[in-house]
Amino acid sequence: MALRKDRPDELVAALKNTNMFWRMTAQRLLIERNNKDVVPQLIALVNDQSVDEIGNNPAAIHALWTLKGLTVLDGSDQNATIAVRKALKHPAAAVRKTAIQVMPPAQDVANALLDANSMNDTEPLVVLNTLLKLSEIPQSQAAQQAILARLDKGTEVNDRWLPEAFAAVLTSQNGQLLKAYMKQIATNAPTKATNDMSAHNHAAMEKASIASTSASTQQPVLSSNLPDLVVAAIRTTPESPAVRESVRLFVDVKNNGGVAIPEGTPIPLSLRVEGPKGATEGAKIDFVSVTHDKGIKPGETVTISKSNNGPWVGDMGVMFERAGQYTLTVMLDRENKIAEGNEQNNNATQTLTYRAPQSLSAYALERATRSYASVAPVDSVISLLRQSQKMNPAQSEAIVKGVSEGWNMKQKAAVQDADKSFLASLTSSVSTENRERLNRLYEAWGVTKEAPVDPDVEVVRMKTVREEMRYDKKEFTVTAGKQVEIVLENPDAMQHNLVIGKPKSMEIIGAAADKMITAKDGAEKNYVPAIAQIIAATPLVNPDQTYRLKFTAPATPGDYPFVCTFPGHWRIMNGVMKVTKAAQSMNTK
């Protein structure tokens, strides 16, 4: 073909060509010649209600974009405006979508979209573009009611983009509709609360959804003259994430043999993530790691969380947008480079469950508040948190999550004194997952300042040392019978705890902790054995989190061991709490 600007009739005809290249070229030339003499012919193409063998009308789509390029859809050509609005009812969904896209963001356009009932179109892309167009237009009361009614009845929780479109329209116009919607659902919450599964049960759901199928964890320590690598556990943080939530992957590797793997010997590990189960075309992601080369002693457990990509080393992690069960498969020493007592127990599998949103409303609220909190002042964000407490649990948890994840943690904020008591009370009414998020948010806001120093409480500050499997203190001293508060900060990339035992009890506590890795409720109990030798213990402290352990020091002076009871850690991650009489009291070392 030979298309030329001085032959406009041929250009218009080419908009019907079966080859997209010629259609696009004709559209470009018609716009570049910038002559409105072809507008009647373009309107005729838009008004053509026919569809091809796949239910589309490409000529009408190109004609719409050409009309927009010729700037005749701004109200200057009444016939063109009528044609575009008529196209909102075209039998081809792609034409309906395009008609919405080319319309100017004007109030009469919003009314036209409502009249055409475009928000309830059978094609999700038409609904999505309707919402995006309405997000650009100051919303009338009728438009707001229609948007919120569509959101309330929406069931497209697995749609990738529709919740984002609802979030965009909720946060447009400085969050006007978001605030109106939150007020509306807060008013209706008493009658709706029973229809939603409480988000406070998430922790229990997550524990139930994780089931390791590894048989290697059941292997006893061998008394052979060779090492024996087994996968002690495959862990994820969080354990059961929501869709579009990043997950860190950790593999605990234990030496079940009687001989150490020497320092300098890399532990080859491969991890494959596949799923979701039942999907025709699911994900398939492979990680390869040879990062651990510090050796493994007999009976010791180490954690591998880094992978290699050529010369680069990074965290193993995934993020999926589809709900369902994903299979994690780990293989150690695939090529048998390390001589072992048992070469048949190097594999393990586990299931990672990605949870679907409970409702479109809650999901859209989370995405909207995440966006709003990223730019709103702190007073407005706290107002959202206050309003969330009047809603049903699913929506309330969604807003807390959105605010916590959306706020820029590097941004300073001045929280009013009147809000601090509310924020303190909020942490007790949210899920464990959101409590951790709020703690991070409060730290960024500066509302978790140190409590006034109590002269009757001895404070010991400790940190884990990143990637060294140890505490920053090997010993500290407290006074017999005094109140003690240990502030444990965990900057490491994995979980740790701190368990204090009776004198000469470290081996007993450590052996009991090792057994808990095969227990179904081991992680739930924070790997803290229920034995009489333990005096005080923290839960597992997540990366970049801090925990305050308060207890009364033993009345009997002596050396009291402290350890991390995550299975295998206690052998090298330990120290001594020295209890002395009052006259012998020393400063914390």
Describe the model.
With 589 residues, this protein is of the alpha+beta class. The chain has 4 domains: 8-138, Leucine-rich Repeat Variant; 194-199 and 359-445, no CATH class; 206-354, Immunoglobulins (Immunoglobulin-like), CATH 2.60.40; 457-584, Cupredoxins -  blue copper proteins (Immunoglobulin-like, Sandwich), CATH 2.60.40. The chain is built from 17 helices and 19 strands. A 5-stranded mixed β-sheet has the order 13-19-18-15-16, covered by helices on one side. Strands 1, 2, 5 and 8 form a 4-stranded antiparallel β-sheet that branches. Strands 4-3-9-10 form a 4-stranded antiparallel β-sheet, with no helix packed on it. β3 (269-275) and β4 form a beta hairpin. α1 runs antiparallel to α2 and α8 (124-135) packs across α10. The N and C termini lie far apart (86 Å).
